[in-house]
């Protein structure tokens, strides 16, 4: 971790730098942070987050029992089933911020449960992505290039589940549910005000992969067309017959924070990096500009996606 990177984080992201396990809210993932598989679908990097979720669930259960509420009644007041309340209390599911607010009110916790919201929200993500998740909340612009799968912000729930279901070793069902919930929550970025500028370039190969089957792909392509109609969103396709592509080094994201500070995020097989070095971020932004110029324009890309839909 370089001094410049640590300084950039402390200057605007909030929170202390933690290098032992990777990125905390407002900090970057440690360059080269590994995501090693750990047994039956749960990875070592998930354990710190799981500890937070379990501790929150135990706290909520303690308050519920103190109030003399059965799970059925407590769930009714929150709008959940008794089995979902049990999942919250056992740390198998992560409640939404709204559910935490309501639980605090129903249990008369006086803000005690609300104190957990930030930590619980952060725990939804793999440790290596937590820094990037925080930056998404603070960004004025996101520029993303993808060559393997549809970007997480653009994925439908069916597409998410198909991808997560293909992980090896297999992820536990509750881990898949948590990842899906967290990824869906990130969609808030599309409706945020003031709206950040969001640019996506993806290769044609990404759009031709039948992950999850033809029905899943059809739904995903239709979803891309809908999102592409938003005024703050540009979706572009890099066709397979394009003879030049400045993105041959792989997928990456350029983030510009509201204070103008730029970051570059990238993932490989089992590592991720989040850089703040000025030279790296400037070059990455320039590279994205070249990629954008080489890809089909947004209107042409929408027409291209429509043709792909017609082929299914």
From TrEMBL:
Gene Ontology terms, MF aspect: DNA binding
Domain HTH cro/C1-type positions: 60-113
PROSITE patterns in alphabetical order: HTH_CROC1
Residues covered by region (Disordered): 1-51
Superkingdom, taxonomy of origin: Bacteria
InterPro entries in alphabetical order: Cro/C1-type_HTH, DUF5753, Lambda_DNA-bd_dom_sf
SUPFAM superfamilies reported in the protein's UniProt record: lambda repressor-like DNA-binding domains
Gene3D superfamilies listed in its UniProt record: lambda repressor-like DNA-binding domains
Pfam families the UniProt entry points to: DUF5753, HTH_31
Biased composition (Basic and acidic residues): 34-49
The protein, known as: Helix-turn-helix transcriptional regulator
């Amino acid at each position: 971790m370089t001094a410049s990177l640590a300084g950039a984080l402390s200057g605007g992201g909030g929170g202390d730098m933690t290098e032992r396990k990777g990125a905390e809210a407002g900090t970057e993932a440690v360059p080269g942070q590994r995501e090693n598989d750990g047994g039956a679908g749960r990875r070592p990097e998930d354990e710190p987050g799981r500890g937070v979720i379990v501790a929150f669930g135990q706290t909520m259960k303690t308050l519920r029992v103190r109030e003399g509420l059965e799970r059925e009644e407590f769930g009714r007041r929150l709008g959940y089933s008794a089995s979902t309340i049990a999942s919250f209390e056992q740390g198998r599911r992560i409640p939404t911020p709204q559910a935490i607010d309501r639980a605090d009110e129903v249990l008369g916790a006086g803000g005690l449960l609300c104190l957990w919201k930030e930590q619980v929200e952060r725990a939804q993500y793999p440790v290596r992505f937590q820094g990037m998740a925080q930056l998404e909340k603070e960004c004025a612009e996101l520029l993303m290039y993808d060559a393997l799968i549809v970007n997480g912000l653009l994925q439908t729930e069916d597409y998410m589940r198909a991808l997560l279901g293909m992980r090896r070793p297999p992820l536990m069902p509750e881990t898949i549910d948590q990842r899906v919930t967290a990824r869906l929550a990130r969609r808030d970025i599309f409706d945020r005000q003031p709206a950040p500028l969001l640019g996506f370039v993806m290769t044609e190969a990404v759009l031709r992969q039948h992950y999850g089957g033809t029905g899943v792909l059809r739904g995903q392509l239709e979803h891309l067309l809908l999102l592409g109609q938003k005024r703050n969103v540009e979706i572009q396709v890099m066709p397979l017959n394009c003879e030049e592509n400045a993105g041959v080094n792989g997928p990456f994201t350029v983030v510009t924070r509201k204070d103008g500070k730029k970051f570059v995020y990238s993932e490989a097989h089992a590592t991720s990096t989040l850089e703040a070095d000025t030279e790296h971020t400037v070059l990455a932004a320039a590279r994205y500009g070249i990629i954008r110029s080489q890809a089909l324009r947004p209107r042409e890309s929408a027409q291209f996606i429509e043709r792909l839909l017609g082929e299914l």
